[in-house]
């Protein structure tokens, strides 16, 4: 019996290693063979990272900037310094490194929070081979790096060791995560809430909240001081939140997603004040507009709660149910060679290429729709159990429920209020894979028990 167990473990580890190597191979092949060019945020991240590489500071166009989180471009700039090259391929290889570390951490998270073999192997396989998790290694963006940080937090959270070290590590990693995605400044609350539902020790949860928040604040504070010194006002991390809130919540927004700043519905005096500032500065440099437009956005939301709710729902649709168009738009958008060659192909070759391209997108879309649906359904199903646990003193919940459900709810709340984009579902996809695997495993077990009886 013992020999059988050992063999099963060995076969399981061989499978995990094989999937890891296949995932690594696919990521390397993608970054080496799929051409792309940098646009929008990705282009800005690269320019900032290059400026850090050249020791010109965290600047854009020669001006100090804090438009978005500084975490990713700063780390990338120092990676460039380490390798003595600011070539985009270095950024892509760094993505692959972070992606594979995330996969390793995911395995250790899974074996800690569940004993279900189906859940462990299925979740791990999906995360290793998911097209989104392969393709985004080709982009100079926050997605892969932030997901690595997010997985690090969960890994530290689920393992028990010296609380002084554990809470300090959590505070540091949450701080770096917040510097990358500023909305993560709220994450200590999420962390403490999960801890309380898991252990039902209010004192322990309160200490966790206080310690992680204080250490996170210490991690963020040098950047906050830098912003005050360079920009002249208190900006904890970035001055992007007002801009995002304003363009996504106004009377002319019909999609819940990004729209040009100049087209936003606002009083004439507000539009004129913003226009006067933007005559002299690029929108990413113009920190002065944030207090003006943030106030306007909040005012519109308070005066139009029903319309805000509609836009929030549209944002969730944009984030979770608008397919995988982003993979074509950001990770494989250099179509110059194809566009030149396409007219020279005969009709049969053109048809074959277009059909395969469309088929590939449809298959990606279908899988992501299924994954996202399972993740959101799991959150709703778990909410009943979580609500019950809130009012029962000794009713403790497992990480198996809490980690996917609470984190999904947190990200959904952020997307609902601020902005919806397909790539914003990226950090949640491995949790959605976990949710789907758990739900399928429960159904299979129930079916087996019914058949046996």
TrEMBL record:
InterPro entries named among the record's database cross-references: LipidA_mod_glycosyltrf_83
GO MF term set: pentosyltransferase activity
Tree of life domain: Bacteria
Gene Ontology annotations for the cellular component aspect, listed alphabetically: plasma membrane
Membrane topology: Multi-pass membrane protein
Localization terms from the record: Cell membrane
BP term (GO), one: lipopolysaccharide biosynthetic process
Membrane-spanning residues: 12-31, 94-111, 118-136, 142-161, 168-194, 206-225, 366-387, 399-418, 425-447
UniProt keyword Hydrolase present: no
Record's keyword terms, sorted: Cell membrane, Glycosyltransferase, Membrane, Transferase, Transmembrane, Transmembrane helix
Listed name of the protein: Dolichyl-phosphate-mannose-protein mannosyltransferase
Species annotation: Marinisporobacter balticus
């Amino acid at each position: 019996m013992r020999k059988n167990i050992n063999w099963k473990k060995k076969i399981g580890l061989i499978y995990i290693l094989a999937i890891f190597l296949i995932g690594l191979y696919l990521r390397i092949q993608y970054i080496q063979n799929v051409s792309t060019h940098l646009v929008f945020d990705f282009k800005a991240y690269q320019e900032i990272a290059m400026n850090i590489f050249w020791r010109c500071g965290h600047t854009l166009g020669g001006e100090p900037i804090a438009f978005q989180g500084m975490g990713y471009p700063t780390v990338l700039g120092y990676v460039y310094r380490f390798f003595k090259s600011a070539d985009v391929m270095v950024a892509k290889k760094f993505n692959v490194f972070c992606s594979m570390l995330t996969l390793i951490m995911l395995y250790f998270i899974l074996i800690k929070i569940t004993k279900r073999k189906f859940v462990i192997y299925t979740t791990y396989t999906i995360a290793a081979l998911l097209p989104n998790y392969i393709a985004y290694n080709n982009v100079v963006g926050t997605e892969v790096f932030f997901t690595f940080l997010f997985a690090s937090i969960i890994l530290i959270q689920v393992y028990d060791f010296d609380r002084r070290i554990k809470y300090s590590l959590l505070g540091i990693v949450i701080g770096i995560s917040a510097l990358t995605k500023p909305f993560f400044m709220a994450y200590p609350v999420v962390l403490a809430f999960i801890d309380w539902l898991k252990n039902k020790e209010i004192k322990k949860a309160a200490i966790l909240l206080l310690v992680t928040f204080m250490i996170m604040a210490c991690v963020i504070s040098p950047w906050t001081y830098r912003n005050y010194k360079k920009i002249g006002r208190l900006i904890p991390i970035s001055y992007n939140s007002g801009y995002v809130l304003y363009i996504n919540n106004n009377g002319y927004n019909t999609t819940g997603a990004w729209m040009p700043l100049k087209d936003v519905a606002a009083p004439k005096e507000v539009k004129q004040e913003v226009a006067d500032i933007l005559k002299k500065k690029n929108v990413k440099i113009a920190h002065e507009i944030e207090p003006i437009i943030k106030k306007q956005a909040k005012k519109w939301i308070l005066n139009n709660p029903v319309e805000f709710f509609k836009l929030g729902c549209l944002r969730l649709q944009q984030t979770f149910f608008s397919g995988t168009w982003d993979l074509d738009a950001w990770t494989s958008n250099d179509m110059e060679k194809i566009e030149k060659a396409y007219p020279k192909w005969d009709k049969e070759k053109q048809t074959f290429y277009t059909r395969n391209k469309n088929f590939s997108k449809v298959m990606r879309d279908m899988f992501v729709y299924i994954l996202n649906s399972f993740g959101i359904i799991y959150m709703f199903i778990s909410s009943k159990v979580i609500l019950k646990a809130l009012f029962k003193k000794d009713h403790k919940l497992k990480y198996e429920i809490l980690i996917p459900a609470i984190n999904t709810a947190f990200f959904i709340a952020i997307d609902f209020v601020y902005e919806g984009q397909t790539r914003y579902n990226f950090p949640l996809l491995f949790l959605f894979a976990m949710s789907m695997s758990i739900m399928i495993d429960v159904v299979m077990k129930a079916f087996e028990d019914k058949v046996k009886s």
